[in-house]
């Protein structure tokens, strides 16, 4: 039985139980035919089983059970109240001798059923065949503590399962093992802080188990099996701060297919937007994530199960819906976003990972932001998003070989225009350096109202956009690059927030001046002169990654339409002067109107007085 440091994962413990069950069948048949009485063979068999487990595990484990039934005619057996228990004193001695395994197991099973044990064949030919083993509602605890001395296996020191088994059988074969509704408790002591993970409603199916002189060298087998399938149903977990809940309808892991599949995944806030900010007490993004299907393929199983490191070929994310919201009007504490961009968050994931390629299929992304001044919410929507990301890793050795994570994304901007975006993230840069570039196709510029009207107080009356090309080098602190904005027939309406008014109010005269004297209607202009849009933006530490992306582009849009920083200063002064003139003119109009009303009242009063005097004289 494989209780040594070459086989340290939970599939091995299941095979160990299998061997015990096999011995039950063979020994049961032998003692039953010899003694023909339960009184005689049961105590002897029990002693044989206990000695076998103790001997094959170097006294690390012992078994307990209340009773078992064996029918040699049908080959069926049932084991009751079975327990596999480690001896901690023996384990501590093995640690001292540097022979301890990385995992300890505690297994309890209320009822274990075996179907069609070939007991006669097992006894006469030393070949044990079993059709099926069913274990209902088992409870398994795994205590993991990785030791450096287990990283290098000393050839010839550890015995294989077959070497332990061959004294009893030449071959062991089981068609299938089913473990239904498992309770799993995983205790990780490999890090300074012990972590507990509990899973319920776990199913494990093991197929075509063969242990003989050749199966251990069969590359198509995993721990002597053709496959181990693990299914977790209705998995739920809360974030440590209690603000979010993650749900997975089903998790499926297959050693035969070397893949993990997650169905109907969601990561959602537990409160509405208003209550979320009250609970968190800080300003920032609120995420709502839903995924129809996530699949991780070509997993390095040995590394995953032995070292808890995820090395895989591809990850496919299908039909994700991503909703990101931020409220700049919230008056709570604003946390810094430095060091929290996506590529930096990847480096902080506890699980070491390396994915060659991550594929995104048909994603919808909605980013919305509430402005502190207007109180209105601007929105950017990306639909039918497809693409891939290369070299997704937080593993130090992998980053030394290739420090760059590359993304290629194709999407539809505001459900109206094709957009192609490329990202290049430096995974080793302390300042979070990355580059983003791309091209946006033709669209009716009026759709920009959803973004610029609430956030920039600008209404786009008309704009025929031909294309927009951008290339920006950015980091946690700044963004610098260039933007090329090709358009025609640009006409805008400047707006302002007026106290007591729900809607933004038009600035008619100022808008007219802006369109006629400042804003360029076309780029290139009628003479064919093209205005580039240089980008040079300092990043507010509280600005999120997605908000910084579009603010960088907005910084390049201004000079593209003739509204560069020099002009912006002049315009600001002009707007103040014009606003003062407008205010004075409006005051003059109001005063004149008031004087007219007063004169009108005086004339009317005079007429009434004359009329009254005439009536008095006539009478």
Structural features, described:
The chain is of the alpha+beta class and 619 residues long. The protein folds into three domains: 237 residues, no CATH class; 241 residues, no CATH class; 43 residues. Helix content is 29%, strand content 42%. The chain has a 24-stranded mixed β-sheet that branches. Strands 12-16 form a two-stranded parallel ribbon. The N and C termini lie far apart (133 Å). The N terminus is likely disordered.
As a whole number of angstroms, the C-alpha radius of gyration is: 37 Å
Strand content: 35-45%
Mean pLDDT: 82
Structural class: alpha+beta
Q: What are the segments in which pLDDT stays under 50 over at least 5 consecutive residues?
A: 1-13, 35-39
What would you call the shape?
elongated
Q: What is the domain tally?
A: 3
Largest sheet: 24 strands, mixed
Number of strands: 26
| Percent range of helical residues | 25-40%
State the distance separating the first and last CA atoms.
133 Å
Q: Work out the helix count.
A: 13
Which descriptors would you attach to this protein?
single chain, 619 residues, 24-stranded mixed sheet, 13 helices, 29% helix
Give the secondary structure arrangement, pairings included.
Blueprint: H1 10-35, H2 38-56, E1 61-64, E2 67-71, E3 76-86, H3 88-96, E4 103-117, H4 119-125, E5 127-136, E6 139-144, H5 161-165, E7 171-188, E8 195-211, E9 227-238, E10 244-254, E11 259-269, H6 273-280, E12 282-283, E13 285-297, H7 301-307, E14 310-318, E15 321-327, E16 333-334, H8 342-347, E17 353-370, E18 377-393, H9 396-401, E19 404-413, E20 417-426, E21 434-440, E22 443-444, H10 449-456, E23 458-474, E24 478-496, E25 505-506, H11 508-518, E26 533-538, H12 545-560, H13 565-618
Parallel strand pairs: 5-7, 6-7, 12-16, 14-17, 15-17
Antiparallel strand pairs: 1-3, 2-3, 3-4, 4-5, 4-6, 7-8, 8-9, 9-10, 10-11, 11-13, 13-14, 13-15, 17-18, 18-19, 19-20, 20-21, 21-23, 22-23, 23-24, 24-25, 24-26
């Amino acid at each position: 039985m494989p209780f040594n440091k070459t086989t340290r994962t939970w599939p091995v413990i299941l095979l160990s139980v299998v061997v015990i069950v096999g011995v039950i069948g063979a020994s049961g048949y032998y003692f039953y035919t010899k003694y023909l009485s339960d009184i005689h063979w049961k105590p002897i068999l029990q002693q044989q089983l206990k000695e076998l487990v103790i001997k094959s595990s170097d006294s690390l484990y012992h078994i307990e059970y209340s009773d078992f039934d064996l029918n040699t005619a049908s080959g069926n057996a049932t084991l009751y109240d079975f327990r596999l228990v480690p001896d901690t004193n023996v384990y501590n001695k093995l640690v001292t001798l540097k022979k301890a395994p990385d995992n300890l197991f505690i297994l309890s099973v209320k009822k274990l059923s075996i179907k069609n044990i070939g007991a006669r064949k097992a006894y006469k030919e030393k070949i044990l065949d079993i059709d099926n083993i069913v274990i209902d509602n088992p409870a398994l605890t795994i205590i993991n503590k990785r030791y450096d001395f287990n990283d290098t296996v000393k050839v010839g020191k550890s015995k294989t399962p077959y070497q332990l088994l061959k004294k009893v059988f030449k071959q062991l074969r089981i068609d299938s093992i089913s473990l239904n509704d498992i309770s799993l408790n995983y205790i990780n002591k490999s890090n300074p802080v012990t972590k507990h993970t509990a899973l319920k409603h776990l199913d494990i199916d093991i197929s075509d188990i063969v242990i003989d002189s050749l199966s251990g060298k069969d590359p198509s087998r995993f721990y002597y099996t053709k496959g181990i399938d693990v299914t977790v149903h209705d998995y739920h977990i809360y974030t440590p701060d209690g603000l979010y809940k993650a749900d997975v309808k089903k998790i499926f892991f297959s050693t035969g297919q070397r893949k993990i599949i997650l169905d109907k995944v969601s990561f959602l806030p537990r409160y509405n937007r208003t209550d979320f900010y009250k609970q968190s007490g800080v300003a920032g993004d609120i995420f709502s994530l839903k995924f129809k299907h996530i699949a991780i393929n070509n997993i390095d199983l040995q590394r995953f199960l032995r070292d808890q490191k995820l090395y895989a070929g591809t990850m496919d994310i299908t039909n994700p819906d991503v909703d990101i919201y931020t409220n700049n009007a919230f008056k709570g504490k604003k946390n810094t976003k430095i060091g929290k961009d996506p590529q930096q968050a990847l480096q902080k994931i506890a699980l070491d990972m390396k994915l060659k390629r991550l594929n995104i299929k048909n994603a919808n992304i909605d980013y919305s932001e509430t402005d502190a001044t207007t109180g209105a919410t601007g929105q950017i929507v990306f639909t039918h998003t497809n693409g891939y990301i290369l070299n997704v890793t937080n593993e130090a050795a992998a980053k030394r070989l290739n420090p760059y994570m590359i993304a290629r994304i194709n999407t539809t901007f505001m459900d109206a225009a094709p957009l192609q975006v490329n990202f290049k993230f430096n995974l080793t840069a302390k300042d979070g350096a990355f580059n983003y570039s791309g091209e946006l196709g033709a669209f009716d510029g009026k759709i920009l109202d959803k973004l610029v009207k609430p956030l920039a107080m600008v209404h786009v009356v008309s704009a025929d956009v031909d294309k927009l090309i951008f290339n920006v080098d950015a980091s946690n602190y700044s963004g610098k690059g260039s933007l090329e904005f090709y358009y025609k027939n640009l006409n805008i309406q400047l707006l302002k927030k007026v106290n007591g008014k729900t809607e933004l109010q038009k600035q008619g005269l100022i808008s007219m001046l802006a369109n006629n004297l400042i804003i360029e209607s076309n780029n290139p202009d009628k003479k064919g002169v093209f205005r580039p849009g240089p980008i040079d933006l300092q990043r507010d530490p509280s600005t999120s990654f997605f908000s910084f992306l579009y603010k960088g582009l907005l910084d390049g849009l201004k000079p593209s339409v003739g509204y560069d920083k020099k002009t912006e200063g002049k315009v600001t002064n002009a707007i103040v002067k014009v606003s003062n003139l407008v205010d004075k003119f409006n005051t003059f109009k109001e005063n004149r109107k008031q004087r007219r009303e007063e004169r009108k009242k005086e004339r009317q009063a005079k007429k009434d007085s004359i009329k009254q005097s005439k009536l008095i004289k006539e009478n």
